[in-house]
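agent: user wants the structure for Sodium channel protein Nach-like from Sitophilus oryzae. delegating to structure tool.
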Amino acid sequence: MIAKFEEYFCENSSIHGLKFVGDKRILRVERLFWIIAVASAFASGYYLIQSNWDHYRANPTVVTIRKDYRNWENPFPAATACFVDRVDKEKARIYIEKKFGVTSDNKKFDYYMNFINILSNATYATFSHLEPYQNDGTLSNINMIELVTQVHPDLSGILVTSHTHVKADWEMVLTENGLCFSVNSEFSDLLSPSYKRKSSKLRTTKGNLKCHYLNGLCYARYDSDPEMPIMYYIHSYLDIAHATSEPPFLVGKSEEFEINFKLTETYSSPNIRYLTPQQRNCRFDNEPLTNNIPVYSKSICYVECRYRIAVKTCGCKPFFYNFLGGKVCNIKGLVCLSQIHHLFNQSLQTLDCACPQPCDLIVYLKDTPQLTKWETGFFGERITFRWGLLSPTTKYHRKVLFGFQDLIVSFGGILSLFLGMSFISVTESVFLLLDFLYQHLVKKKV
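agent: tool returned. relaying tokens verbatim.
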């Protein structure tokens, strides 16, 4: 049956060369020549098609340099501000009286006040300070997020930006560095102390603050309480402050700190979204790696790696991972994590953590800062932090180099060149197969 089909197909197909292969009237040498020619054409076509397919799957994008900077709207840096001391003494006194029924003249008052100070300023590096409290039954079921939120100082100050048409304000966030405030961040909702994993919906801000190249004055300034020193983390609006962020800028009493940032940005064309993350070697912010988090960023990926180590080692997560699932550590659990805190400062390669590059990559390079200390007058009664953006003249653009349409065109060109095939030829081949089977069945019935 197969031999008959081959003969029938070769006689009726319009694919170049096949009719000579099946023609019994020509010499064997001629038929051998045509068999070799057609087989070589098929082999060459297969090789080139396979090569183009591998290219499409492995590396179909290219990064080019853009210089049309006069039309750019540049993303302004996000900031995360953290008080050096995260405890308001009066709020802490009220909390102790309500929660533990202990007044300030009681011997246990200082004991609880010290616990609140340690917990409110806790990081992986300082969890060991909680060891004296791990066997205290009055603290075993305490809601740590509620505690640090209720005793945290109010953020009182004035935020001014050059973006007069956009309202910008600080939002409370819970980070690996403790309770802080963030502005112009895409993920401030995710890090909110009140975030609920099942019910909360993230707002999409896409970095509200942007700077046009022609705007020569692009900045934000925050004037705060002179008695409350603040640490500032500057990062992309698609990132968050975390345990291994670059060291923050500390602004103390009567100090005015000013710094500008240079932007290096790689942005991606919308049409690369139909490629898989493996093909483009990057991920967009709405393409999470796991179901734990609804978004993706490289810094959030770092956080999730440390979270997995914490759960694997001690069976629980620190309280500041409110947006991640799992059991929250009690004080004994936090003390357990203090024994492995050195792991959280190691490189991702050491931790066996794979965090793909984001498709929209934004990096801010700091310029030389200026620090002024005011001794007298109006400026001596406040703390000022000013950060600005120096508009770039070069950006990097990731776009499709060899997309699906190009793949189809290349397949058609190869098949046409080597075999004279087209879409109609493929349809004809299917028709001949079905027609042969139909005739074969009809003859069987007869």
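agent: one observation worth passing along. The longest strand covers residues 255-268.
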